[in-house]
């Protein structure tokens, strides 16, 4: 069974409160999503392996630790996942970015694919799928399956807010994928929105309706 990590750092929880607030406007919403994504990237990279190297400080020779050449990939689920990309890249600037375009059919709530462009060596990379919302789990399950169909073997999922239903679905279909979230909310409503959630993440990020 995959693990679920809830990153309850005070800064993340504080910023998430403003993200949830319906009175937070587009610019602040966008900035806050980026900041929380950056803080969560710090947590999700906690287990990266290090290798030792010798350098010269201005004082003497020293053995220091650097990330051990791991190839990372960030995979935002369009559209709303785009809002998290720059925050993650601030901490891991050398990561490659692949895009998976999915939207949720408002009637069936099933994900519909419209775009997919991935790094060519996806099978060698440690991938982080990013999307602010894990609601029914349909979009995340489909995106992870695209990656696995193309050879990906090492995948983590990072979302701001998850519903219990979405977590359960990802664990059922992809029990090798650990899930990192800032909050697990109460439930989904009849329209498949997370309660209390933050509303429609894509619309709030891009100022659409
Ligand atoms: C939202 C969100 C997820 C999906 C979650 O995207 O960003 O991708 O819904 O719902 P699910 O877990 O039930 O699949 P949406 O389909 O609204 O598209 P958008 O990002 O283009 O707004
Ligand atoms: N997608 C969103 O943007 N918000 C939700 O609450 C559920 C799906």
From TrEMBL:
<dbReference type="GO" id="GO:0044206">
    <property type="term" value="P:UMP salvage"/>
</dbReference>
<dbReference type="GO" id="GO:0004845">
    <property type="term" value="F:uracil phosphoribosyltransferase activity"/>
</dbReference>
<feature type="binding site">
    <location>
        <position position="200"/>
    </location>
    <ligand>
        <name>5-phospho-alpha-D-ribose 1-diphosphate</name>
    </ligand>
</feature>
<comment type="function">
    <text>Catalyzes the conversion of uracil and 5-phospho-alpha-D-ribose 1-diphosphate (PRPP) to UMP and diphosphate.</text>
</comment>
<keyword id="KW-0547">Nucleotide-binding</keyword>
<comment type="pathway">
    <text>Pyrimidine metabolism; UMP biosynthesis via salvage pathway; UMP from uracil: step 1/1.</text>
</comment>
<feature type="binding site">
    <location>
        <begin position="199"/>
        <end position="201"/>
    </location>
    <ligand>
        <name>uracil</name>
    </ligand>
</feature>
<feature type="domain" description="Phosphoribosyltransferase">
    <location>
        <begin position="6"/>
        <end position="208"/>
    </location>
</feature>
<feature type="binding site">
    <location>
        <position position="79"/>
    </location>
    <ligand>
        <name>5-phospho-alpha-D-ribose 1-diphosphate</name>
    </ligand>
</feature>
<protein>
    <recommendedName>
        <fullName>Uracil phosphoribosyltransferase</fullName>
        <ecNumber>2.4.2.9</ecNumber>
    </recommendedName>
</protein>
<feature type="binding site">
    <location>
        <begin position="131"/>
        <end position="139"/>
    </location>
    <ligand>
        <name>5-phospho-alpha-D-ribose 1-diphosphate</name>
    </ligand>
</feature>
<feature type="binding site">
    <location>
        <position position="194"/>
    </location>
    <ligand>
        <name>uracil</name>
    </ligand>
</feature>
<feature type="binding site">
    <location>
        <position position="104"/>
    </location>
    <ligand>
        <name>5-phospho-alpha-D-ribose 1-diphosphate</name>
    </ligand>
</feature>
<dbReference type="InterPro" id="IPR005765">
    <property type="entry name" value="UPRT"/>
</dbReference>
<dbReference type="Pfam" id="PF14681">
    <property type="entry name" value="UPRTase"/>
</dbReference>
<dbReference type="GO" id="GO:0000287">
    <property type="term" value="F:magnesium ion binding"/>
</dbReference>
<dbReference type="InterPro" id="IPR029057">
    <property type="entry name" value="PRTase-like"/>
</dbReference>
<dbReference type="GO" id="GO:0005737">
    <property type="term" value="C:cytoplasm"/>
</dbReference>
<dbReference type="GO" id="GO:0006223">
    <property type="term" value="P:uracil salvage"/>
</dbReference>
<keyword id="KW-0460">Magnesium</keyword>
<dbReference type="InterPro" id="IPR034332">
    <property type="entry name" value="Upp_B"/>
</dbReference>
<dbReference type="InterPro" id="IPR000836">
    <property type="entry name" value="PRTase_dom"/>
</dbReference>
<dbReference type="GO" id="GO:0005525">
    <property type="term" value="F:GTP binding"/>
</dbReference>
<keyword id="KW-0808">Transferase</keyword>
<keyword id="KW-0328">Glycosyltransferase</keyword>
<comment type="similarity">
    <text>Belongs to the UPRTase family.</text>
</comment>
<dbReference type="InterPro" id="IPR050054">
    <property type="entry name" value="UPRTase/APRTase"/>
</dbReference>
<keyword id="KW-0021">Allosteric enzyme</keyword>
<keyword id="KW-0342">GTP-binding</keyword>
């Amino acid at each position: 069974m995959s693990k679920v990590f809830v990153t309850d750092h005070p800064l993340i929880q504080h910023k998430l409160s403003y993200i949830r607030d319906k009175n937070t406007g587009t610019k602040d919403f966008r900035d806050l999503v980026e900041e929380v994504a950056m803080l969560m990237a710090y947590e999700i990279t906690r287990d990266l392996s290090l290798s030792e190297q010798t350098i010269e400080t201005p004082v003497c020779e020293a053995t220091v630790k650097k990330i051990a050449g791991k190839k990372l990939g960030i995979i935002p689920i369009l559209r709303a996942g785009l809002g998290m990309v720059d925050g993650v890249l601030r901490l891991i600037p050398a990561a490659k970015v692949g895009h998976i375009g999915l939207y949720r059919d408002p009637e069936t709530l099933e994900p519909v694919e419209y775009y997919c462009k991935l790094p060519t060596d996806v099978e060698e990379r440690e991938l982080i799928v990013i999307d602010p919302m894990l609601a029914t789990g349909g979009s995340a399950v489909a995106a992870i399956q695209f990656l696995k169909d193309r050879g990906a073997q090492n995948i983590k999922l990072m979302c701001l807010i998850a519903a219990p239903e979405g977590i359960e679905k990802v664990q059922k279909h992809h029990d090798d994928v650990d899930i990192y979230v800032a909050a697990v909310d109460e439930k989904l409503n009849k329209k498949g929105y997370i309660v209390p959630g933050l509303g429609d993440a894509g619309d709030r990020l891009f100022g659409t309706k």
